[in-house]
């Protein structure tokens, strides 16, 4: 049931943005952490298959990830700038009020710079934010993709050294609520700390190999101790996203295990799981565009009261369905090109 799980996580991200800052607890952050862990797990398994089946596994893996994720993202970037030019800048939707320039369009399409819109590491020309606001986290994920072939070559001790460095950066950042080094930027957003979540999932995928079984358990215990003991003792929950970050890290492993362990027997449920899993990514990248159209075409503001939230969800689903249809032919080419099917032919296929 991984597809349904990913769909629910994408909806949590949508809802966390739709409700603005009305909640002190942000479920979207929890969802992003679970996404990161899941990506680490799935991409380790995926890259291992490229190593087994391809004579150029690194290039083939990079190309596959590009074809899987970038066409939809690039289309949403261009559609967002076009919508602003057509309907005018948003009054109530965050960041969809930026005038288009060739430089800004290219920086957004490049994607990797989108992770650097937070102090102290900022690409000034991309400010105030990517035109696809969640793109900063997608950029963090692409950083992980770029690093993965090197990570896969590391012997266990070197892997542990990298994990120790990233975990130290992240955990130390949790003790700072402001300043250039804090729980928001280096704890949650920048790859320097966020890499820990990916490596957590990566280690879980290798748990049956000698010397790896204890690593995800040790990390889980670290996060659980931080959540239940350290953070309350030192008042860390007052720092940005510490509660959400730690809760997401603690929930990620059991959620993924439960999702992978639930194997639907009904054909319709298998189809629903596959479809909803494939809709998760386009919902994640397109929901701000849906908010924009709700404001401009339906007259809703960012308060998202009354029928605005279901309208935003419905419109986001509609946009996502169109993106999914356009992606279908690309996916057919992608699978032919790489020469092997998605993992478990549907059970993990929505993510592979």
TrEMBL record:
<feature type="transmembrane region" description="Helical">
    <location>
        <begin position="28"/>
        <end position="45"/>
    </location>
</feature>
<keyword id="KW-0012">Acyltransferase</keyword>
<keyword id="KW-0472">Membrane</keyword>
<protein>
    <submittedName>
        <fullName>Acyltransferase</fullName>
    </submittedName>
</protein>
<keyword id="KW-0808">Transferase</keyword>
<dbReference type="InterPro" id="IPR002656">
    <property type="entry name" value="Acyl_transf_3_dom"/>
</dbReference>
<feature type="transmembrane region" description="Helical">
    <location>
        <begin position="245"/>
        <end position="263"/>
    </location>
</feature>
<feature type="transmembrane region" description="Helical">
    <location>
        <begin position="159"/>
        <end position="180"/>
    </location>
</feature>
<dbReference type="GO" id="GO:0016746">
    <property type="term" value="F:acyltransferase activity"/>
</dbReference>
<feature type="domain" description="Acyltransferase 3">
    <location>
        <begin position="5"/>
        <end position="324"/>
    </location>
</feature>
<dbReference type="Pfam" id="PF01757">
    <property type="entry name" value="Acyl_transf_3"/>
</dbReference>
<feature type="transmembrane region" description="Helical">
    <location>
        <begin position="275"/>
        <end position="293"/>
    </location>
</feature>
<keyword id="KW-1133">Transmembrane helix</keyword>
<keyword id="KW-0812">Transmembrane</keyword>
<dbReference type="InterPro" id="IPR050879">
    <property type="entry name" value="Acyltransferase_3"/>
</dbReference>
<feature type="transmembrane region" description="Helical">
    <location>
        <begin position="305"/>
        <end position="324"/>
    </location>
</feature>
<feature type="transmembrane region" description="Helical">
    <location>
        <begin position="217"/>
        <end position="239"/>
    </location>
</feature>
<feature type="transmembrane region" description="Helical">
    <location>
        <begin position="186"/>
        <end position="205"/>
    </location>
</feature>
<feature type="transmembrane region" description="Helical">
    <location>
        <begin position="66"/>
        <end position="87"/>
    </location>
</feature>
<feature type="transmembrane region" description="Helical">
    <location>
        <begin position="135"/>
        <end position="154"/>
    </location>
</feature>
